[in-house]
Write a structure and sequence with these properties.
7 strands; alpha/beta
């Protein structure tokens, strides 16, 4: 009986098997992660203050993905291009809208997807670009800011020098 084992051969076989198993695991993880996500783009026509890469994307209040990247549009710096990574089974329809939202008063901003009637076709069936674009609507934050700007402008008109002089004369 042989009492001397070939340790080099056993060690090489063990290392080779471990490396092959590791490579297979990495390949399987990459394959499954690519199949379970779909990319979409959103073009905002308003500031996206506080929104960052990695921010949450919610569909009717349920987290369905993240913001992959944010950048200014090269042809119009007033627009912000956001690339979203959503779960592949998210029912993004042609009439789905995106808007900025915030959790509570001090929460971090996120993108809220809403709409999407059951009879509408999927956005990927209608928009044949490489990355389909979800339409946006003005957020409540932007509506509040616009209303505040209009109120300040009206207050400036009411409290103009001419009106202040008229009020002073009336009081005299």
């Amino acid at each position: 009986m042989e009492t001397k084992a070939n340790y080099v051969l056993i060690g090489a076989f063990t290392i080779l098997t471990a490396v092959l198993l590791l490579l297979f695991g990495l390949w399987a993880a990459k394959y499954s992660s690519e199949k379970s996500w779909t990319e979409y783009a959103v073009i905002f026509h308003e500031p996206v203050t506080g929104l960052t890469e990695g921010s949450s994307v919610q569909y009717n209040g349920i987290s369905v993905g993240t913001v992959e990247s944010l950048r200014l549009a090269p042809d119009d710096p007033r627009e912000v291009l956001a690339r979203l990574k959503l779960q592949a089974d998210t029912p993004v329809k042609a009439d789905t809208k995106a808007k900025m939202s915030i959790t509570g008063l001090t929460g971090s901003p996120f993108i809220q997807l809403t709409g999407g009637s059951p009879s509408a076709p999927r956005l990927t069936d209608v928009d044949h670009r490489e990355v389909p674009v979800i339409r946006t609507e003005a957020s409540a934050l932007q509506n509040i800011a616009d209303t505040a700007n209009r109120l300040v402008a009206r207050m400036d008109e009411v409290l103009s020098e001419k009106n202040v002089q008229h009020i002073a004369r009336t009081l005299d």
